[in-house]
Amino acid sequence: MNRKLYIINGPNLNLLGTREPEKYGNISFDKIRKLCGEKCCNYSVDLKFFQSNSEGKLIDEIHKAIFDGHGIIINAGALTHTSIGILDALNMFKGPKIELHITNIYARENFRHKSYISPVVNGIIAGFGYNSYLHAIDAINSLMES
User: Using one digit for the tens of pLDDT, what is the confidence trace for 69-87?
Assistant: First the structure.
């Protein structure tokens, strides 16, 4: 049985490629999904790639991972800095978790320097553009193999 990886994406990430390309790049969300799928195939990992602009739907997806997931990569977007609900849901997931950001949140506005979810993840990958996703898949694969 292959391991199952959830990559969970928060608000506005569906608009990657057109949203502030000077910060987030020109690559589309669908292209990132495709690249992640290819990378997961290399590791024989089943990918569940999810995006919602709704906090509740993100929490519901984390709840699904509790029962059948082996790892979570989460790019919670702006909810990183506001959501105790996402923090609590991630805390219930016992497998490895990685927090992901396309930009370097510490080089941006001060309010982005505080992450509510950082205390319950194994690590943070930030600032590598869309490659943050690919680096996170490499990292979580190592954690899932441990």
Answer: 999 999 999 999 999 999 9
Q: Of the listed 6, 43, 70, 101, which one is catalytic?
A: 101
Question: Residue 100: pLDDT above 90?
Answer: yes
pLDDT tens per residue across span 33-51: 999 999 999 999 999 999 9
Residue 80 belongs to a domain with what CATH number? 3.40.50.9100
Mean pLDDT over residues 48-72, rounded? 98
Is 135 among the residues known to form the active site?
Answer: no
How many residues appear in the chain?
146
Inter-axis angle of helices 84-92 and 55-68, nearest 10:
10
Catalytic choice (6, 24, 116, 130) = 24
Q: Does residue 124 sit in helix, strand or coil?
A: strand
Q: Is 61 helix (H, G, I), strand (E, B) or coil?
A: helix
Q: Range of 106's domain?
A: 3-145
Tally of structural domains, the chain? 1
Active site residue 133: no
